[in-house]
Structure formats: C-alpha cells, structure tokens
Amino acid sequence: MADQIPLYPVRSAAAAAANRKRAAYYSAAGPRPGADRHSRYQLEDESAHLDEMPLMMSEEGFENEESDYHTLPRARIMQRKRGLEWFVCDGWKFLCTSCCGWLINICRRKKELKARTVWLGCPEKCEEKHPRNSIKNQKYNVFTFIPGVLYEQFKFFLNLYFLVISCSQFVPALKIGYLYTYWAPLGFVLAVTMTREAIDEFRRFQRDKEVNSQLYSKLTVRGKVQVKSSDIQVGDLIIVEKNQRIPSDMVFLRTSEKAGSCFIRTDQLDGETDWKLKVAVSCTQQLPALGDLFSISAYVYAQKPQMDIHSFEGTFTREDSDPPIHESLSIENTLWASTIVASGTVIGVVIYTGKETRSVMNTSNPKNKVGLLDLELNRLTKALFLALVALSIVMVTLQGFVGPWYRNLFRFLLLFSYIIPISLRVNLDMGKAVYGWMMMKDENIPGTVVRTSTIPEELGRLVYLLTDKTGTLTQNEMIFKRLHLGTVSYGADTMDEIQSHVRDSYSQMQSQAGGNNTGSTPLRKAQSSAPKVRKSVSSRIHEAVKAIVLCHNVTPVYESRAGVTEETEFAEADQDFSDENRTYQASSPDEVALVQWTESVGLTLVSRDLTSMQLKTPSGQVLSFCILQLFPFTSESKRMGVIVRDESTAEITFYMKGADVAMSPIVQYNDWLEEECGNMAREGLRTLVVAKKALTEEQYQDFESRYTQAKLSMHDRSLKVAAVVESLEREMELLCLTGVEDQLQADVRPTLEMLRNAGIKIWMLTGDKLETATCIAKSSHLVSRTQDIHIFRQVTSRGEAHLELNAFRRKHDCALVISGDSLEVCLKYYEHEFVELACQCPAVVCCRCSPTQKARIVTLLQQHTGRRTCAIGDGGNDVSMIQAADCGIGIEGKEGKQASLAADFSITQFRHIGRLLMVHGRNSYKRSAALGQFVMHRGLIISTMQVCHHIHHVPSVLLSAGPGREARDGDALPGAVQGPHQVRQGSTDCSTLRCCLMIGAAGDWMCQRSLSTPGRSLSFKTFLIWVLISIYQGGILMYGALVLFESEFVHVVAISFTALILTELLMVALTVRTWHWLMVVAEFLSLGCYVSSLAFLNEYFDVAFITTVTFLWKVSAITVVSCLPLYVLKYLRRKLSPPSYCKLAS
Fold first, then answer.
1. 625 - beta bridge partners?
2. pTM of the complete model
3. Which residues pair with 1125 in a beta bridge?
4. CA–CA separation, 849 vs 970, rounded Å?
5. Residue numbers annotated as active site
6. Model confidence over 318-362: pLDDT tens digits?
7. Can you tell me the distance from the alpha carbon of 525 to that of 523, in angstroms, rounded to the nearest whole number?
8. Residues in a beta bridge with 630
9. Which of 510, 678, 1105, 1116 is 20 to 30 A from 823 via CA?
10. In degrees to the nearest 10, what's the CA dihedral of 179, 955, 1096, 978?
11. Nearest-CA neighbor of 659 among 645, 684, 679, 677?
C-alpha cells in the first residue's frame, strides 16, 4: 500500500495521463539514454517498484548535467504559471520588477569577493578597497524616502484607483464634487503612512548611529587610540574588553588570559547561549608584550568572505623568523562580529568589515509586508472596477450614445465611483490601529508590543509557524535528573546517597594512601590487572562520577578581583578555587549540567586549561590530570572522548560519552542499556552513555604515533583520523547512563497543542545538534509520543538524496528531522519534491540551520504553498527568518532584544503566542473582513440607488440635488451631479466611528470561543452575498421612496439619506454577534450626528418636512422592508444550521 503512494500527492488528472503516456512511450521505445543513470539509484527492495522511478517526473531531468538539477523545479513551477491569465494578473508586475532589478544591478555592480592578505597593523598595505565597517538597517535615504513610500502605496490597484479618481476632479468637464471630499481621505491615508514610515526610519537611524559610534581601542605604533566602530579598517589591531561587542570579523591574536584562550557569547549570531572557547594564535600569544606585535613582520591569509559561520580557512605567517613560521587558522581562531567577549581582554586583527562580515551576510534586508486581507480586498476592488465599467457602459447604451457619449461614460464612472468607497482605506487603517492598541493593553499578555500596525489580521490567518528552539521553546537550563548504573537507578530524591558514596570512597582512598604511601600505586595497578570481579555499588558510583567530571569540554571561570588590571596579574584569580565566584562554561549546556551535578555530589572541577585538569575531592584534596588527547563531539560521530593521565598514579584512561546509538556497538555486552535509554527518552530526558578503557603506556604511545601521522596526512585526513580513534573504541567498559532535562518555557506543551488543534503546522528550526533537537521535539510534544520520527540521514550527493527521499516517501504520518547539510543537498536537486513531502508531515525539525537557511525555508514555504507563515525567535540569528516571514514575532529573552526589535510583534513569553494568534489575530481578521465588506456594502447601496434613480428619473429633479434645484442646461447626465458631499462625508465619518467602536468591542466574549468558528470571513462567496444585500436594499430604498413619496419626490435627498442612515444602523446591529454598552452608545451617537447635521445642511434638507409624522412612518416602513428579511434569514440560519460553538455550548 505504501509503495503505491504517488510522488506528488496532489496531481491533476491531466498530469497523471501525461505520466502514463510518457511511461507507455518509453516502454515502446526501449531503453532511453538515462536508463544507465537510472540503474544506479535502484533500491535493494525490488517490490518497491515506484521507488525505482526518479523523483523528477520528467525525462529532461535525466538528460541534463547534475549541476543543472537545482534549476529544474523552479523552472517547472514557472512553466505552469505562464499564460494569458498569468500575464494579466501578475505577469506585468513580474516583468516590471525584473526590468527594474536588471537596471539596479547594472547601476550597482557587486564586486567579486576574493581571498585577501592582511598585514598586522598595516591597513595601508591592503591591495583592494574594502567596505566601511558601518551598520545600515535603513530602507530609505533622504532622496528615496518620498518616492519609495509613494511607490509602496500606489503599486496596489485600490490606492491607484483613488488617486486617479481624485486627480480627475481637476478636469472641469469631469468635476462632479468638491475637491476636499476626494483628496482629504487620500491625503489622510498618505500622511499617516508617511509619518509612520518616517518614525520607523528615524528609529532605525538612531539604532545604527548608536552601534556605529561605539568606541574601541586601536593598537598603533604610538600606543592605544580610540576609534569609532565605523572607522575600523581591515588590518587594524583592535582591543576588545570583556562584555564588549566585537565590531568586525577578526583573527584572534592575543588575550590577557594565561591559558591563551577566551570565551565569547554567540547568541546574537547562531542563537546558542553557551559560551564558545576561542584560541589565540600561538606565535603572537607567546610575544612578551603587546608592543611586540609591531616589531614582527607577519600577515594573515584569509579566504574570501562567505556566509558559513561554522568554518574558516586561513594561515598565519611570520616572515622575519628563520625559518618562517606558518600556522594554520581555523574557526577556533576567529572572532566574528556581533559576538560578545565573555572572559578576559582580546586583541585581534581585522580581516572583514561592514557588509563582508559573517553577521551582515547572514542578515536579509527587511521587506515591506502586506497583509493577505489587503491583497484580497485589492482583488475585490478590481472586480468592482470591472463591474463599474460595465455598469457605465450600460448606462451610456441606455442613453443611445447621444452627444459626447465618451464624456458621459467618464462621468458615469465618477458618479458610480462610490462602488469602491474612498473611505475604505481610512476605515481599515483606523481599525488596525485599534486592534494593535487592544493587543498592547491586554493584561493577559503583558509586555506585548506591536511594531507593524498594518498586519494585525495576519496573526489570524497563519498556516505554518516556524519557531526557534533555544530560548524560545526552552529556557536552555539543563538539570541533572537521573543516573543509571545498570542494577540501580538514582533520581533527584536519592542524590544524597550518591554524595555519601563519593565521600566514603575518597575517604577510604585517602586513608589507604596515608597508611601506605609507597604501596598504594602497585596495589591499584594490581587491582586493575586482576581478574574481573563484581564491583561494589560504591566503587561503581565513584568511577561513574569520576568519568563524568573528566570527560567533557567544560572550563571553570573565575571572576577577577578588584584592582587587578595589569596583564601579568590576570591569572591570579585562577588560583582562587573558592566556590562563590566559580562559573562553568562550555559549548553545550548538557556538559555544564553534568559538571555542576558532580560538584553537588562532592567532586568539583576547579581548574582546566588546554593540557591539564584539576579536581577537588570532598575532603579538599586537589587531584591533577594531564590531558593527553581530546576528541570533540561531531554530528557524525555523536560522541566525544578524552585520554587523561592521573599524575598521582600515572594511569592512562580513555573516557568516552555519547548518544546511545553511537555507544551501543562500542561498549561491552549488556542487557539493560537499550531499555533504559528508551525509558528516559519517554520521560523527555536527554541521555548520554558513559564508558571507559584503561590503557597501558605502550598502547598509548602506539596510538599517539598513528594519530599524529593521520593528522599530518594531506589526503582523506578526517577518514584516517577517525579510523585511528576507532581502533581504541572497542570493548569499552560501560559505566553509567545519565539523564538531563532541558527545561521548557512555561506552558509550551499546551500552547503547541492548541496551535495544532487550530490547524497550524509547526516547524522547529534550530542551530543545535540533531539529538538535542529531537529530544526537545518529544519533550515539548511538538511530536506526540505515539508518532513516528523519520530521521533523515546525512546525504552529500544527488544519489543519496534520491534514495533517502524515496525512503521518506513511504512513511505515513511521521515527523521529519533533518540536518542543515542534508537539507541543502535536497533543495539543490529536489526542491519542489522535498517541500511537497515535508508539508505533509505533522511536524518538521531542521537542526544545524544557519540564519540564511532559516530564512530560505520560510521563503520556500511561501512560494510552494502560497500559505501564510509566521516565524518566532529570540536571538539575532532569527532576524532573517522573522523578516522573511509574513508575520514575525520576537521574544525578549536572554539573547537580547535584536529579534524583538526586528519583529512585527514582540512578546515576553512563548505561551503568549496562543492568545496573540487565537484571540487577537482571529478577531482582528474577522473584524477587518467585516469592516471592509461593510464599507463596500455602504458604497454599493448608494450606487444602486443612483442607478435606480437614473432608470426612473424625473428629468427636472436630481437625486443628490437640493429641493427645487433644476438640471443644468446641456447636462447629459440627469442625476450626475453628486450634490451634498458634506452629508456623505459625515455619514462616512459616523460609520467609521461606529464600526471601529462596535467591532472593536465585540471581541471580549468571542475570546472564549475563538477556536470554534473556522472558515474564511472574506471570500468571493461572502462578498457576493453582501453585493446581493446591497442591491436589494438599494432597490428597496429607492423604489420605496417612489411608491410612498410619489407626490413629495422633490425631497428625495432627505428621504434617501434618512432611510440609508437607519438601514446602516440596523445592518450594524445585524452584523454584531455580542452586544456591549459601547455599541449602544455608538448607535445613538451615529444617529445623533446625522440629526445634528440637518441643522447645518438646510440647503439640502427641508426640516419642516422631515419632522412630520407622515415622513417618519413612511421612512420607517421603507427601512423595515429593507432589513426585516435579513433578520428573518439570520434567525432561520441559526435555528436550522447553528455554528459549532452553539452546539458545544448547548
């Protein structure tokens, strides 16, 4: 059954027929040119015949070179879009954009990035000119601000239509009203928009100026000088103090730390809050003083600027020594811009500045976001414009094309222009401002900030939520929860037993050493070589704790004492082993949690450098160990190891820890490891298997020689090194299994559950390791416990990606976990296929993602699905993703405010996203949709009344003229004069106030059932319903006036507008679902505004006639006939087909 699933789950019948025809053609023609290439990708399972087919369902795919495959999916999509419909709808815009982009690229040619040679302290020796080290996040400058804002506004048909209508009033032959009635609403919208953009631009300018004006110490021949961040050049020697931001990409030359290394915080670059260890170039670190950097002749050769923040290749060369000194530079010798120095003072040479730095290259330019509701209203406006043109042509046809019919046609277009009311934008913008204000004033989500007030309704239309992990879903605070020794397990409530065992073990060892100092070593060696016997629990606990405290990459950091400023005195604090000022730093929070736990049970790591480690026992004794070799953790090996020598006994031990899948084949046979790993994983714990192996001096010397030889190899170095290390990883003694819990943010599980129930698909994009991401996906219930997880294995070629995608295609209802490298390969060759398969998954986890990869995933979802996306994160590495999404949400957390400042909405906790989306987002969308359709409904009623009047007009009386006003001589359009614009403008203002207040107040009770009414509130179906209502009510108002006021039809203005105002008020009451006291006030306030306007507009209204009883009951009758059927239909619909929330409530 699974093998019969088609590659493209959603295929048209025509596409399926074409595939069958193509298959028949190939079967008749015999083997095709790509058959030999096809055979390379056959699976071992012969029954899976569909899996042998290429993922590319087109024969041209296998006739191209491999380098061309990444262009095929996008080309296929573009081919489907071509055609007359595509050109009319979006093609002209695409062609204009392409031409503009081509012209911009010609005017702004990007120079080719090249590798460079940077001389220490000599910027003048740079062969090429490099960009300034300034940060610029502004979208406009002084010259482009007004044109840019106007272009963004008038590129939409709705605004362009209003502009053309307003400009037409400058033509005397087309003028039908006062200029201010057209230009005032349009000018108001433009003024509000430009003011908002100007404020945002000024704020961005201030932030950029603050960063660019930060002062740094620059080292010169004459000493230290202060320079601004924007004045730093390639080749400068920059001194960065502790807790100071690194201004540009540098190579780490020197530090005040005795060990020759320092820690940096990279949370604004990769989103990880753990400190990274950086190592200074040994040649410059060994110089006696800072000034000696200018006494040597040295340079750095750096690769060309690139986006990868996890790799670097370069060399350091000192020419004035004999022989010249050459050092290889890697990622551990670099200091990237936007990171923070966490320990000591560092000196580096600048290699990249400005837009060539890693942080800027991984940041995308912000875009102007437009809500889907605005796009839908824009499409409805186009439909209304076509109806307007058709209606005007019909009217000219009824006149028989007499006289200057083309002028009459344009005047009809202007007369019926209220079909597209110019107040639509004003109402929507005011409504959105109210919705944003309500979000920020919600006491249930304190601290919420709305930074983009134009898209609040987007929060209610999301389909994909892409979230960061560290700091967003988790607190990134690890707690040690479980230690399992095989026969006994210790939890949080039994840690005191472990502490007692450790204390007793070291007390016994110390007493033995005191009784026989010389005989202790031979005794322990004899014990290690004796036949295996069952060890006591105390001995096993001691060995497990010792292995945990030795096998890691953690460094204890001590705060320097006050007054220590000289470089030679920086290391004094290293000798102060007091517990008060010690903190642990490592690249993984798991390791910090493990070392903190060993400290709590009595064995403390007090000192560590590149070659040694010191431990303190419960009795205060300090044990010293020499680090012989260190094998860091990699995503491929999934484990890390260390070889240490105990300086007191000269014993050499190889310790290793890692994931259970990597350690199971390495350790000795056991019958409990797999079962216990599963139990801990179900509890949401991150497991690590710890093992050891004792080595003799001869074994280690043999290993070291082979290991050194492998590291010097120029070909297949990584494979040879891995092979040598694996020679040690055999029959290791299993010591223990640890379980660490990564604390989740408050209410993450119910929030994710609520979002899933609302139909939102959640993708987790993180820069963390695959194992960590998988564990968090389970513990946060992003992936349910009963759901399968497909871990996409590492692929490096098209063939491997092909096989793995076929394997993934056979899975049903399973979550996908994929690494950034594999994702890059899949997107290169099978972009469309991969996205289509991934979108069917209930959850997707992408680990080891760079900032640009996160943004690219968001863009791919937008292009391939056409659905709305939301990105949420809390670090600087999430900015690109947040800006690329249709709606970006930033969290103010431990990683700073960079994400929250760049986002459209800012919150303080992840759990607030539930109320932000489900309540405010949904209500904003429903209110905006109702408001937009209501405003169009009002314009359609007015236009319908004018059409009916024109068909049954009285030649001497105009619909919108005052009493007794006759048609002008030569006026070919009876009724074409618009008349009392003051009245219409007043009704517009009243409706704006009324709708904003009423709809804005209608959300409090609706919050309780915000998930219960799915469906779209604005579509062509709902729009057509409102059109039919408008035609019906407009016809009733006009024909009712003809029937009831036949003798007094000279008062048509008073009749029509009074009935219109009453009808609008009743329609508001019909639309509102939940009443609030503000709604009642708004109803009477709107009616009062109309009544009070009669006193100022006596030119158009006869007050004596309006106050008669006959007028009042006849107008009331017309209003009741226009609205009563709608109330009856609403009642019948709620009775016969009640909404789901009513069923649940009953």
1. 613, 646
2. 0.70
3. none
4. 73
5. 468
6. 888 878 888 878 888 899 998 899 888 999 999 999 889 988 887
7. 5
8. 642
9. 678
10. -20
11. 677
